[in-house]
Known about the structure:
Layout (H helix, E strand, L loop, with lengths): L15 H13 L9 H10 L4 H28 L2 H21 L3 H18 L2 H10 L6 H33 L4 H20 L11 H14 L1 H30 L5 H21 L4 H4 L2 H20 L3 H29 L5 H25 L4 H37 L1
Amino acid sequence: xxxxxxxxxxxxxxxxxxxxxxxxxxxxxxxxxxxxxxxxxxxxxxxxxxxxxxxxxxxxxxxxxxxxxxxxxxxxxxxxxxxxxxxxxxxxxxxxxxxxxxxxxxxxxxxxxxxxxxxxxxxxxxxxxxxxxxxxxxxxxxxxxxxxxxxxxxxxxxxxxxxxxxxxxxxxxxxxxxxxxxxxxxxxxxxxxxxxxxxxxxxxxxxxxxxxxxxxxxxxxxxxxxxxxxxxxxxxxxxxxxxxxxxxxxxxxxxxxxxxxxxxxxxxxxxxxxxxxxxxxxxxxxxxxxxxxxxxxxxxxxxxxxxxxxxxxxxxxxxxxxxxxxxxxxxxxxxxxxxxxxxxxxxxxxxxxxxxxxxxxxxxxxxxxxxxxxxxxxxxxxxxxxxxxxxxxxxxxxxxxxxxxxxxxxxxxx
Length: 414
């Protein structure tokens, strides 16, 4: 780890049974039921007549409520209830997916994306904050245990997602194209009930107000180099690596005419790779949560985009995309281990929301520019690769500044 943390706290009042139940629900709800619709989503868009730029615009619309509500909803979770906010996520996100189930126009899809975007703002950081504060009530080493827990959750999530992607493709092929979408809606309804009835909100240090939580989180980001490095890594993944993911899907369908079943198999392979990546670092999260490993994640994302820019066969695009899955599986356990170690209870959900807001803002600007200038898939990849280069320079500059200052201090006080 970067250090032992400045905000290690001890809360009391949660029984071992309640802690175990919180952990089980955290693992279960980590299963991403939305993956059922991933193999058919691009097909639904294309059959509705959407262009590649319109596909990215929908992602931009998804970001609008995140830009407006991300940080306020995170601070609301720290001030009010992480459990309540997690339940709201499943309700609103499921409602958004429902518009995809019943609609076949850009407008209906846009409404669905907007509702889902509102929902996702209530999720960011809420469940991880709830579980970390739950661990503080019973565990003597919450940081190490939390890293393993997140890695386990990611492995379960990706493994289940691999199966779900195949099932989604099979269901869409042998029944109705939109049936996986309806099943996704039911899944989120079920998770909302599970969270409401099963989670126990742990005792914690609550923010005095939503505004106080925002101020505390902003101060942490502005003063802690470790958190600034995490922000750069998250930008590389959330913004620029994501362009590669959607570009590869567009290539699979438009260039190589991959059908729903084929997309399901490809997405399953992606999720298995991400799951294995997360599983591989499970017992090493505390040791690997350092600046060298974060820098490696950015470099791998750069290789991923550079390869897609160069162009390749269907097999080549699949193999190149696996690089993006390696970082996808490792990024969350490593960054979450650093974040939770560096911040206090009163800002846990708010800080994650703040990080998400920055990434979402950049992605929204990026996708909007692509639509305004009607950029091709190749042009989007080029700009994405330039973004990775900028992230690399920023990461190195931040580390060089600290190295240079330490060298100056050493020469003055030796």
